[in-house]
Write a structure and sequence with these properties.
The complex is a heterodimer of chains A (113) and B (115). Chain A is mainly beta and 113 residues long. Chain A has no helices and eleven strands. Helices cover 0% and strands 53% of the residues of chain B. In chain B, a hairpin with a 6-residue loop joins strand 5 (32-39) and strand 6 (46-52). The N and C termini of chain B lie far apart (41 Å). The chains are: A mainly beta (113), B mainly beta (115).
Chain lengths: 113, 115
């Protein structure tokens, strides 16, 4: 049981490039979410999903796309990276959307030049 | 809108001593949940403790306990018998009750443990 996994651990992009941050969980959790963490700030919600085929925006969704085709996977796409997207990205999951404790992945550090 | 405030950017404690980290929040809701997460240098977010707003009893987990004051909207974390491994960034987080699981985080408190 690996829990929540994220790849890559670290990535450098040039402005305008696209990439996908991968997130997977093996706990059969319905709820998955993406947060970003910037210096001096707490984590902020980007997008979330309450089940396969269902996604919604969080607090800071601009510049990011998500989809949820399976229960296990919840990738985060940056279509045209900007320096403002330099951050640490965390994926999290919980059994359901009803205030259950969320378990976080190890994070992906992204640097956009 | 709900907000979470951690007014202590940094704290320091001697090994084996007790330290309290402060957290206040603003909400008009009556049903919600509060969490403390620990983030060590590895960056992994680790759940420390959870408190349901409808419960009057303060949550405890081994050396970690909370002082939940619902009327004052205060949720402090007490770490007893501090250990070197407790050194980390600690985040307070709020989760609104209802059909959502969105977490709102404070800005964190960096805890140093002195040997």
């Amino acid at each position: 049981n690996a829990g929540v996994t994220q790849t890559p651990k670290f990535q450098v992009l040039k402005t305008g490039q696209s990439m996908t941050l991968q997130c997977a969980q093996d706990m059969n959790h319905e709820y998955m979410s993406w947060y970003r963490q910037d210096p001096g700030m707490g984590l902020r919600l980007i997008h979330y999903s309450v089940g396969a085929g269902i996604t919604d925006q969080g607090e800071v969704p601009n510049g990011y796309n998500v989809s949820r085709s399976t229960t296990e996977d919840f990738p985060l796409r940056l279509l045209s990276a900007a320096p403002s997207q330099t951050s640490v990205y965390f994926c999290a999951s919980s059994g359901t959307m009803y205030q259950e404790t969320q378990y976080f992945g190890p994070g992906t550090r992204l640097l956009v030049l | 809108a709900q907000t979470v405030t951690q007014s202590q950017p940094e704290m320091s404690v001697q090994e084996a001593e007790t330290v309290t980290l402060s957290c206040t929040y603003d909400t008009s809701e009556s049903d919600y949940y509060l969490f403390w997460y620990k983030q060590p240098p590895s960056r992994q977010m680790i759940l420390v403790i959870r408190q349901e707003a409808y419960k009057q009893q303060n949550a405890t987990e081994n050396r970690f306990s909370v002082n939940f004051q619902k009327a004052a909207k205060s949720f402090s974390l007490k770490i007893s018998d501090s250990q070197l491994g407790d050194a980390a960034m600690y985040f307070c987080a709020y989760c609104y009750g209802g059909a959502t699981n969105k977490l709102i985080f404070g800005t964190g408190t960096l805890l140093a443990v002195q040997p």
